[in-house]
Write a structure and sequence with these properties.
3% of the residues lie in helices and 55% in strands. It has 152 residues and is mainly beta. A ten-stranded antiparallel β-barrel has the order 1-2-3-4-5-6-7-8-9-10. It is globular and about 45 Å long. It holds the Pfam family DUF1579. This is DUF1579 domain-containing protein.
């Protein structure tokens, strides 16, 4: 991976808004049976040489638990107008999702049981995400809120 790798296509170039190292902070939403959990750490996005795949690394603590994730995003799929996402974590979980971006620059990440809306500030130095998930039913429930501040 190199810092000067560029996106391979204009469509993949939309992912450049994510590139960099971000300080991650947030919390899960309390439920009647579980308290809210604090989330702190970092997210890093960088291009794999060639510019077809964006590598996303997550290194956070959720309360006292360490969570590490590596995710590959891309390349852009013109048929679905989305970016495939495949993530693997240190708990042995594997998740597939699809990312899309609207004309206002708002990103949606959607999987079978979880989804998020990511808004990148105009200055590209902060992002906010609202996550939802499905738990034992058909309804989406507010799961967590995250804020990301660009470090580099």
């Amino acid at each position: 991976m190199t810092d000067n790798t560029q996106a391979s296509t204009p469509e993949n170039g939309r992912l450049n808004a994510l590139v960099g190292r971000w300080r991650s902070q947030g919390q899960t939403v309390a439920t009647p049976t579980e308290p809210a959990l604090q989330i702190t750490g970092s997210d890093t996005y960088e291009w794999l040489e060639g510019g077809f795949f964006l590598i996303h690394r997550v290194d956070v603590r959720i309360n006292d638990d360490k969570v590490e994730v590596i995710e590959m995003i891309g390349p852009y799929d013109p048929e679905t107008r989305t970016y495939p996402m495949r993530s693997f974590d240190n708990q042995g979980d594997f998740v597939t999702m699809r990312a899309s971006v609207n004309d206002n620059g708002v990103w949606t990440f959607a999987g079978e049981t979880e989804r998020a809306t990511l808004v990148i500030a105009e200055d590209h130095n902060t992002m906010t995400a609202r996550w939802e998930r499905i738990d034992n039913g058909p309804n989406w429930l507010h799961w967590m809120d995250m804020t990301f501040t660009k470090v580099s």
